[in-house]
Amino acid sequence: MRFLSRRLVMPNDLNFAGSLFGGRILEWIDEEAYIFASCQLGAKSLVTKHIGAITFETSAFQGDVVEFGLQVKSVGRTSLAITCLVRNKHTKQNICSADDIVFVHIDPETRQPTPHGKTKEQLDDFPEPL
């Protein structure tokens, strides 16, 4: 799993109890997974079709740095499924996981699913970032 990005938990990210709001982390997961899928496929015309099981394991608080680990789970003809793990950068404790985030490649004009032309093997060979 590649941990490619980080975010700082700010005051406006907190819920009434003073911990990271679940809706905010889901927003971040969707955004990070889209960026990862888009980079993997070399395409920006992707839509989120499905986000599977979400598991919250521990809280994050103001000032914590959270990092997002992403990996390709499976590849379809027009789709790509991603797994995301969010953890505390310093403690390495898992905060949240989202298994089975599915994006569909669409034609930008017709908005219909269209083949992306990639295989799991091609994406598994994707080079590590610098």
From TrEMBL:
Chain ranges of the HotDog ACOT-type domain: 1-109
GO terms of molecular function: long-chain fatty acyl-CoA hydrolase activity
Entries under Pfam families matching the protein: 4HBT
One example of a Gene Ontology biological process annotation: acyl-CoA metabolic process
Key words of the record: Hydrolase
Stored InterPro entries: Cytosol_ACT, HOTDOG_ACOT, HotDog_dom_sf, Thioestr_dom
Protein name according to UniProt: Acyl-CoA thioesterase
Upper classification of the organism: Bacteria, Pseudomonadati, Pseudomonadota, Gammaproteobacteria, Alteromonadales
